[in-house]
Amino acid sequence: MTGAALADTREGTPDTLPAPETPAKPPGLGELIAPIRGRLTAAILAQSAAAVCSMIPFIAVAELARALLAPGGPDEGRAWTAAWTAVGALVARLVLYAAAGVLTHHADADLQLDLRRRLARHLGRVPLGWFTDNSSGEVKKAAADDISTLHHLVAHTALEVTAALVAPLTALVYLLTVDWRLALIALLPLLLGAFFLKQAMSGGEEVTARFFGSMGAVNAAVVELVHGIAVIKAYGRTSRAHRAYDDAADDFSVFFRDWIMSTTRASTSAALALSGPTALLVATAAGTLFVTQGWAGAVDLVPFVLLGPAITGSVMGLAQSGHAVQGGLQSARQIHALLAVPPLPEAPAPQAPGEDGKVELEGLSFSYNGATEVLSDIDLTLRPGTVTALVGASGSGKSTLARLVPRFWDTTAGTVRIGGTDVRDIAPGDLYRQVSFVFQDPHLLRTTVRDNIRLGQPDADDTAVETAARDAHIHDRITALPRGYDSVIGEDAVLSGGESQRLSVARALLADAPVLVLDEATSFADPESEAAVQQALSALAAGRTLLVIAHRLATVRDADRIVVLDGGRIVEQGTHTELLDLDGRYAHMWALQQKGVAR
């Protein structure tokens, strides 16, 4: 990235970095399968040869009949040649078919591994703020369901389409050598079936897009329902919570029913036209006419009776594969769109931040949509060894301001510096070694308690892990688990909200970053342990920079500085005592909360 381009990105970055609109034609399929194109081509060639071999036994039987029923008497040599050719073709088909299947499945396995790694790497480079406005169900669909759909396209459908095209072409070429007139008549069911199939698949691309969109909505509704089920049941809102899922499922059901009903007549007509009995009836009727009129010999009717149904039967399989192809193309679009989400811009020559951990916010403004500013003209300096608390009403911009420090988004205007270096000039890996954060809703991985704590310091020894747990006042709870620190979250370690929050605090303590951002990090802590955790955080402040978001003012009354936000602007700042003496917004908030405590 050039310096000018980097400067352009700093002029304004929206809160989310949405995936670009899906183009009319899928730009991603060719790119996605590029790593396996050679093996896929080899598999298609092997399948083509296998499809030719699958028709040879039928041709051999027809030739055997013509040899045995020849006007001059049976041609024994020709008959044996036809028989052995059939046997050889069956063996060759088996080998080639197996080779094609092995190639596509190995290629598919490598493709899935490559795509999942690419998605994981790319999502790791996407701004963390992007995930707050994008459904985990949609990400899961692209990273799991859409890749599985590509499995069918690569491992199965590619071979099925190849066979459905090559086999009837092989049969048609042979029939043209026997009697071109009967061969053309044998194509009539095929032409009629293709006409009806075109009607049935009309608007297929749009319908497939709607199908995947409806499925994505159902996925998102399920994920949302599962994530919120505990709160939903606690407040007796189960029926209301199911409404979003029910609505999504109903919408999908209505769409699917209407789609099937609109294509039933054309699909049924196509299936009838392309069925074996129809092809056999046409071949027999036309052949009988030709034989009785003396236009062809009776023995020439045999190839058409044998191979006529093979032509139409293969094409019916091709029609059924059409939906799989459309699904694969749509999945490729979704995966490509996810991979096209702009990553967080990185400086061409990253700079190392200073070691003092000082945080400076200068002239900072931020907008989520480029139109309405959430933060305006923020000037704030957070010094090492101090605790700075952000307070204010909901929607005042506290969490947004705190998340600009670890660069969840880039500022619309102004600068965020850590250790004297603009965060946009710091390599992401270095930035996250400078800043740890504990959020109001802690997320624990489904692994051992020990590994959860040392997530930021994978090489930390057991003593360091235990020390961090003690400082966060969670050690005693961990040792009470069935396997202590080796207990697995979600299996034999089921923690309450407050316990999960303290485990997240222990993780941040062990990471030992110079800057620590706490978003109501003790909101779930019980009153007995809250004071102890606050003491641990105060001890941690020595030599470090703490930025704390608080709703309960009592938890930050001892902070070195309290910053009051309102409407995205700093309206007051000072110590607890200084702000009370001002008798302004903070004093009013304090009085209201104290009145609530008294009650």
Automatic annotation (TrEMBL):
Residues 359-592 form the ABC transporter domain. One of its GO terms (molecular function) is ATP hydrolysis activity. Residues 42-327 form the ABC transmembrane type-1 domain. It comes from the Bacteria. It is a multi-pass membrane protein. Keywords: ATP-binding, Cell inner membrane, Cell membrane, Membrane, Nucleotide-binding, Transmembrane, Transmembrane helix, Transport. Residues 1-28 are annotated as: Disordered. The chain crosses the membrane at residues 40-62, 82-103, 153-174, 180-197, 209-232. Its main location: membrane. It is found in: Cell inner membrane. GO terms for cellular component: plasma membrane. Coiled coil: none annotated. Belongs to the ABC transporter superfamily. Siderophore-Fe(3+) uptake transporter (SIUT) (TC 3.A.1.21) family. This is ABC transporter ATP-binding protein. It comes from Streptomyces ferrugineus. The lineage of its organism: Bacteria, Bacillati, Actinomycetota, Actinomycetes, Kitasatosporales.
